[in-house]
Amino acid sequence: MTGAQIAAAARRQTTVIPRASRGDTWAGRLFQALMFAAIGLAFLGLGAIIYDFARDGAAVVTWEFITRFPSRVVPDRAGIQSAIVGTVYLMLICAVLVIPLGVMTAVYLEEYADANRWYNRLIEVNIQNLAGVPSVVYGILGLAFIVRGPLGMGPVLLAGGITLTLLVLPVVIIVAREAIRAVPSSIREGSLALGATHWQTIWKQVLPGSIAGIATGVILALSRAIGETAPLLVVGAGVSLRFNPEGLDSSFTALPIQIFAWTQDPNQAFVARAAGAICVLMVILLAMNSVAIWLRNRYEQKW
Amino acid sequence: MPDDVTEETIQPEQAAARRFAPALAPHPATAPVEAPSESIFDVRDVAVFYGEHRAVTDITLALRQRHITALIGPSGCGKSTFIRCLNRMNDLIPSARVEGEVVYHDQNLYDEKIDPVQVRKRIGMVFQKPNPFPKSIYDNIAFGPRVVGMKGDMDEIVESALRRGALWDDVKDRLKDNAFGLSGGQQQRLCIARALATDPDVLLMDEPCSALDPISTGRIEDLMMELKANYSIVIVTHNMQQAARVSDMTAFFTVELDAGEKHRTGRVVEYAPTDKIFTNPDDKRTEDYVTGKVG
User: Which of A212, B208, B233, B286 meets the CB 3.0–4.6 Å disulfide criterion with B270?
Assistant: First the structure.
């Protein structure tokens, strides 16, 4: 080949864009279809569940259902007031306890802890592990140390709240750490260079910059706790209570407990009540998650 | 470079003088440099280590009060590491260790009794990338005075700082707006104004214009010339035109493998008045660097 021929060949090669091969195109389509099928399957499962309880429960959910107390005898008159109030109280206790504990732990681990020290590494590994411990184990912990044992509170509202706090604490710590880590180091440096102390920098720059992420994480963690049944059963939540909790040392029940109790009942009319309670629980859950999403979109700091 | 040929026929220092001649013309806003003034920093035998690694070594410089001192040199030569010694920002890196003395107003900044937070109140710093806080323009400026507990009318403090930062006219009608809405150059002037708000007497600037366009860079250089009447300024820059334009003194850093050492270490090759560094340097390495032969 002459030089001119080589040059001509090179020109052809660089100017003509080859078409995608048929095999590549089909592989791409197949892959896309598989992914679509996977997400479709997940949605199908969710849809089936929603359809199932909505069909049985929608008719049950009335204002009377929400405001009446549970009944063990007359399904038509059974409501969920004490369960809703108990759940709300549990969430409040949980939030009040878990926010300061979780945020302070996260601040310590991100801003103060020297990651080279063995005890800090041990704490870190343990928090990761604790986030994966089954919730019933937390229930047993609550039973042994809070209901009985050292604290000996008995099966009261505060004991249930503390147990749920322990359950969600690792999750809150992990999300709070991520939110704190997302604050760029240039902000910390800028603050320290102005003569701010480490503490002022954390309080006035790092925490305000990460508060939206922390709040979002806390709500998502609480919405996990709200559906937990096993730990509350183990710590001795009451069933079909005909009164609301009157204080931290009062007996209590919660929505998932009431649902669990009704689904166990041989009377089909009570099972329909359970479906109605599930509808209410789902609405609360969706509302909490919506607030979390809204918070994130509205207040999350873009750096 | 158009004068490839001519460089062989004339002396390198002449070539350098020619290249930097326009930049070295006296700036209208400044008086020419008079006799050496008092030092603001007496740096004695400073070495900085990151763990076992010696990043810079044998730094001995007397940085002058109310002058602009430029630190130039190739990447990795330790300019930034050194400038961060002057307000103890290296304390934030757990593995960093500083040896030697940095004497500021007769006190060694690395004395055990010195609180780094107090040091930083007196010695402000501006960083490479503008780092405004995600707050209003007003709150960005007011943050420093608030944390150091400055007394007085905060509105006045903010206005005065923004005026000194040559930003007042740009932002006086939108002090409550988020600082992230400013342009890059305005953000950097905000950071300068923020540093001035606490009334420091030194301003450290670590490549303050490297993320800015030439027009914004020009405004910041003009600002520096104005500020040096009241402040001592130390600036790290990769832009040699900038060093030549704004600074009175220049320190040329380089990074070399020392005899018997495994790692490359930064050190100062030459420290002299800026026009000497750029026109008639004593050291061949300085000359090669400022004429663009290396680096």
Answer: B286
Query: Using an 8 Å Cβ cutoff, are B292 and B1 in contact?
Result: yes
List CB contacts of A279: < 8 A, sequence separation 6 or more.
A53, A54, A57, A58, A60, A61
Quickly tell me which residue has 């009157």 as its tokens. Answer: A246
Residue written as token pair 């920002």: B89
Q: Does B134 touch chain A (CB under 8 A)?
A: yes
Any B CB within 8 A of A290 CB: no
Q: What tokens appear for A50 in the block?
A: 């929603």
**Residue A12 phi, psi (nearest 5):** -60, -45
Asked if B118 reaches chain A (Cβ–Cβ under 8 Å), the answer is yes
**List of residues 6+ apart from A189 with CB closer than 8 A:** B89, B92, B127, B131
A251 contacts A238 by C-beta, under 8 angstroms: yes
- Among A99-108, A269-278, B135-144, B176-185, name the one with the lowest average pLDDT: A269-278
Q: pLDDT tens across A55-84, in order? A: 888 888 888 888 888 887 777 888 888 999
- Per the listing, tokens 């399957």 go with A41
Going by C-alpha positions, the residue among B69, B211, B105, A78 that lies closest to residue B114 is B105
Give residue for tokens 């400038």: B83
* A195: number of Cβ within 10 Å: 25
Q: Quick one: which of B193, B185, B194 has its CA closest to B218?
A: B185
Q: Could you tell me whether strands B39-50 and B68-72 are parallel, antiparallel, or unpaired per DSSP bridges? A: unpaired
Bridging pattern class, strands B202-206 and B232-236: parallel
ipTM for this model: 0.83
Residue B232 pairs in a beta bridge with B202
Closest CA–CA distance from residue B148 to any residue of chain A (Å): 7
Helix (H, G, I), strand (E, B) or coil at B211: coil
Structure tokens at A254: 């919660």
The three-state secondary structure class of B255 is strand
Closest-CA residue of chain A to B94? A114
Q: Where are the alpha helices (DSSP H) in A131-254?
A: 135-141, 157-181, 185-193, 198-201, 207-225, 230-235
* Residue of B126, B133, B199 for testing the chain A interface, max A β-carbons within 10 Å: B133
Render the burial of A239-276: b for 16+ CB within 10 Å, e for the rest.
ebbeebbeebebbbbbbbbbbbbbeebeeeebbbbbbb
For residue range A149-174, list pLDDT tens digits in order: 888 888 999 999 999 999 999 999 99
φ, ψ of residue A125 to 5 degrees: the values are -60, -40
| Interior angle at CA A142, CA A139 and CA A146, nearest 5 | 160
Question: Which chain A residues contact residue B124 at CB under 8 A?
Answer: 193-194
Provide the whole-model pTM. Answer: 0.81
